[in-house]
Design a protein that fits this description.
Urease, subunit C, domain 1, alpha/beta, single chain, TIM Barrel, hydrolase, N-acetylglucosamine-6-phosphate deacetylase activity, 2 domains, 6-stranded mixed sheet, carbohydrate metabolism, GlcNAc_6-P_deAcase, N-acetylglucosamine-6-phosphate deacetylase, 9-stranded parallel sheet
């Protein structure tokens, strides 16, 4: 009797790899994707388990780098049961093909950061829920003029650079992204400091002109938060942060964009996509109302009214996040832009992984990467099952 190889083989499937959908088996061992040549020619091993995928599509697991909550949970508000709230959302996200995410906190009181931030820890995914990559801190170092749904009671300048951020946030150990406005006093020093710690900096909620944005990129920023929303509109003499899509800076600038059918017009999606296709990242920017009916919810200290799936700051028509999950955004994006299926899927997997510098382990199905993937219907893009580290963590009800 042959010893067990620990190998699982996914057979009869169409895999998204290297920008193409190819007919190829996927081999997994110890939570990683393995090279079948090593298996066949060196080890001469056979799979312990073979799964027939019936010509379905296997795509890298989706990565949501901006999500404020969902299913009644708001990451910036619910400070009593932080861990339970985060895990509830992490578990629900599996049904939408999201295998990794960045819980996002909006502008909040200093005490909220002290009570919440240390308790949202970077956590590997599994049956309990999607991987927590780290917290995305959106505010309070943003422009009052472009505050959007952020409370102006807590918006401040990072006058002392990184020291100002530490005074408000406390420890940055659990943080992976900070969104700030680059034109503010001390912002460029803060960007340099964050970058030196390995924390990614996104530009947003800002009145910055293009020169401000380019200085920020040279200091280490590599992201724009929800393009077109909460920034100066494009102008031909100074295109503002939007101009970074066509900038001559040496490194790739990535940008989150919300394709929920509400935040961004289809023509704007097409303009962004055609201007800088490599940098486009789909984000849900979902609020506590994700997965729930219309009603009243929270985003940080602000109250949210959801009407016909649209989330507004109560008493206004100011949009404050979406109610759509990332798999829905992919479908709407593909419809709006008429892009290839391969590209649409990579905007929610490979692109966010590249922006975070983790594409060697997440966001693709290359050999050696984590076996985080989604099995989908290739026509409807319905999520049929979700896998993390080679383990099935969600199966759609039949």
């Amino acid at each position: 009797m042959k010893p067990k190889s620990g190998l699982t083989r996914f057979h009869n499937c169409n895999i998204l790899r290297g920008g193409k959908i190819i007919k190829e088996d996927l081999w997994i061992r110890d939570g990683k994707i393995v090279n079948p040549e090593q298996v066949f020619y060196v080890e001469q091993a056979e799979a312990d388990i073979t799964i027939d995928c019936d010509n379905l599509l296997l795509t890298p697991g989706f990565i949501d780098i901006q999500i404020n909550g969902g299913w009644g949970i708001d990451f910036s508000f619910d400070s009593d049961n932080v861990e339970q709230g985060v895990y509830k959302v992490a578990k629900e996200l599996l049904a939408h093909g999201v295998t990794s995410f960045c819980p996002t906190m909006v502008t909040s009181d200093k005490n909220k950061y002290a009570s919440i931030l240390p308790r949202i820890k970077k956590t590997p995914g599994g049956k309990h829920g999607a991987t927590i990559l780290g917290v995305h801190l959106e505010g309070p170092f943003i422009s009052l003029a472009k505050k959007g749904a952020h409370s102006d009671d807590y918006i401040i300048n990072p006058d002392k650079g990184l020291e100002s951020l530490r005074e408000i946030y406390g420890s940055l150990n659990n943080v992976i992204i900070v969104t700030l406005a680059p034109e503010l006093p001390g912002a460029l020093d803060a960007i340099k400091g964050l970058t030196s710690l390995g924390i990614k900096v996104a530009l947003g909620h800002s009145t910055a002109n293009l020169a401000d944005g380019e200085k920020a990129v040279k200091c280490g920023a590599n992201l724009i938060t929800h393009l077109f929303n909460a920034m100066l509109p494009f102008h031909h003499r100074d295109p503002g942060l939007v101009g970074l899509l066509a900038t001559t800076t040496e490194k790739q600038v990535f940008y989150g964009i919300i394709s929920d059918g509400i935040h961004t017009h289809p023509a704007a999606l097409r303009i962004a996509c055609r201007t800088n296709s490599d940098g486009l990242i789909l984000v849900s920017d979902a609020v506590a109302a994700q997965g729930l009916p219309d009603g009243t919810y929270s985003i940080g200290p602000m109250s949210v009214s959801v009407e016909n799936g649209r989330a507004y700051v109560v008493g206004t028509k100011t949009l404050c996040g979406s109610t759509s999950a990332l798999d829905e955004c992919i479908i709407k994006f593909k419809e709006a832009t008429d892009c290839s299926l391969e590209y649409a899927l990579e905007t929610a997997s490979l692109h966010p992984a590249k922006a975070l510098g983790i594409e060697h382990i997440k966001g693709n199905l290359n050999y050696g990467c984590d076996a985080d993937f989604v099995i989908m219907d290739p026509k409807t893009l319905k999520v049929l099952s979700t896998w993390i580290a080679g383990e099935c963590v969600y199966t759609a009800p039949k």
